Amino acid sequence: MNTKRIIGLATIGLAAVSLLAACRSNSSSSGAKTSDNGVKTAIITDTGGINDRSFNQSAWEGLQAWGKQHDLKKGSAYNYFQSNSASDYTTNTTSAQQNGYNLIIGIGYSLQDAISSAAKNNPNTNYAILDDVISGQKNVASASYADQESAYLAGVAAAKTTKTDKVGFIGGMVSDVITAFQVGFEKGVASVNPKIKVDVQYANSYTDAGVGKTIAAQMYNSGDDVVYQCAGGVGAGAFAEAKIINQGRTADDKVWLIGVDQDQNYLGSYTSKDNKKSNFVLVSTIKEVGKTVQEIANETAAKKFPGGQILNENLKNGGVDLAKDNAPADAWTAVQAAKADIISGKITVPAK
After folding, report:
1. Contact 144, 274 (CB under 8 A)
2. Exposure string (b/e) for 20-56, b if CB count within 10 Å is 16 or more?
3. CB of 128 within 8 A of CB of 160?
4. Any idea of the CA torsion for 281, 221, 195, 145, to the nearest 10 degrees?
5. Of residues 313, 348, 268, the one with CA closest to residue 18
6. What does the alpha-carbon distance between residue 226 and residue 302 come to, in Å, rounded to a whole number?
7. What pLDDT sits at residue 182?
8. Contact assessment for residue 222 and residue 166, using Cβ atoms and an 8 Å cutoff
9. Alpha-carbon span 203 to 231, nearest angstrom
10. H or E element at residue 163
11. DSSP assignment of 9-28, as one string?
12. Most buried one in 106, 160, 282, 318, CB count within 10 A?
């Protein structure tokens, strides 16, 4: 594991997205099978669920890959607990512990209170929280993501691509995490052309696809030709609206959508009005939650659970990144230049 990413152990680094790029490893330093170490891992989803095509899904895919890598069976060595509402967070963390899971990972900042409380009540069980920090508890590992850095790159791509000088941002619920996405995106846009208007709207939900569709329709109809959605399951509605609009246009007159948390290019395929196969996903910001799940599980199996530590995931260590998808050549060249400047420290992207 790259110790540069652990606060208090070394310097803070970052740069391994797409489920761990560059310097990070998919396996722990131990070659023994994870099952031999008695690790049973469970993730607790937030209300988006494992089919949100975003944050929770990436975490579950990472855990499944970990199970397959170590020849483990779902239900006996790894599993997920679905949260359909916030009231399920405590119930699910309790159920996971009572069912013998000794590494329990909360997916998203919404589970902060439930994970913190469970860890205090069960000091012999290891816990982790992704996208938030729980301090002062030795049986809790935290992972924080520099979403503002990947969002900055998305802003650069949007600004280099827009033809109307109007772009949109759809947030889920107001929080420090989503604010980082918004601010990073706005800064990236402004770095190319400060005169471009960024239309910001919040859905006040992570699950209401209907609201996402309505907001996207309003944005596109008002002239926003690139929209960045950071809203979990709400984004499904934005994808649906972008597809409807683009099917009624020629391929050269498309509106764009920016993916989030995982490479969402696969959601953007469509046939245009002039009967051409095309895709409307410009780029996707990636958050390597699946790889973080794998790393924590592997470290635990190697008797090196990073309790009390903060894993800082950023562009430099590959914890966040940007997928090229369908970005035009000039936009991607600008993105690569900005990425190099962020990694070198020439550009510092604020989170709020």
Report:
1. no
2. bbbebeeebeeeeebbebebbbbbbbbbbbbebbbbb
3. no
4. -40
5. 313
6. 45
7. 98
8. yes
9. 8
10. none
11. TB----B-TTTS-TT--SS-
12. 106
pLDDT tens track of the chain, all 352 residues? 443 333 333 333 333 333 333 333 333 333 344 445 689 999 999 988 888 888 899 999 999 999 999 999 999 899 999 999 999 999 999 999 999 999 999 999 999 999 999 999 999 999 999 999 999 999 999 999 999 999 999 999 999 999 999 999 999 999 999 999 999 999 999 999 999 999 999 999 998 999 999 999 999 999 999 999 999 889 999 999 999 999 999 999 999 999 999 999 999 999 999 999 999 999 999 999 999 999 999 999 999 999 999 999 999 999 999 999 999 999 999 999 999 999 999 999 999 9
d(CA 22, CA 43): 25
Amino acid type, 222? S
Q: Which of 320, 237, 330, 315 is nearest to 282 (CA)?
A: 330
Contacts of 346 (CB under 8 A, 6+ apart): none
Q: Hey, what domains does the chain have and what are their CATH numbers?
A: 3-145+287-319 (3.40.50.2300), 147-286+321-344 (3.40.50.2300)
Alpha carbon separation from 324 to 2, 210, 258, 283 (Å, rounded): 25, 28, 10, 5
Nearest to 216 by CA among 198, 229, 207, 205: 229
Encoded tokens for 29: 């330093």
| Residue 36 confidence (pLDDT) | 52
Q: Compute the distance between CA of residue 331 and CA of residue 282 in angstroms, rounded to an integer.
A: 10
Number of continuous H segments (helices) and E segments (strands) in the chain:
9, 14
Say how far apart CA 112 and CA 132 lie, in whole Å.
Answer: 7
Between the alpha carbon of residue 109 and those of residues 97, 106, 178, 278, 284, the distances in Å are 20, 8, 11, 36, 21
Task: Confirm if 258 and 227 have CB atoms less than 8 A apart.
Answer: yes
HSE-up of residue 285 (Cα within 13 Å, Cβ side): 36
How many angstroms separate the CA atoms of 244 and 270, rounded? 9
Measured distance CA(176)–CA(183) in Å, rounded: 10
Rounded to whole angstroms, the Cα distance separating 107 from 62 reads 12
Q: Which residue has the tokens 């590959």?
A: 318
| Integer Cα distance of 256 and 29 in angstroms | 42
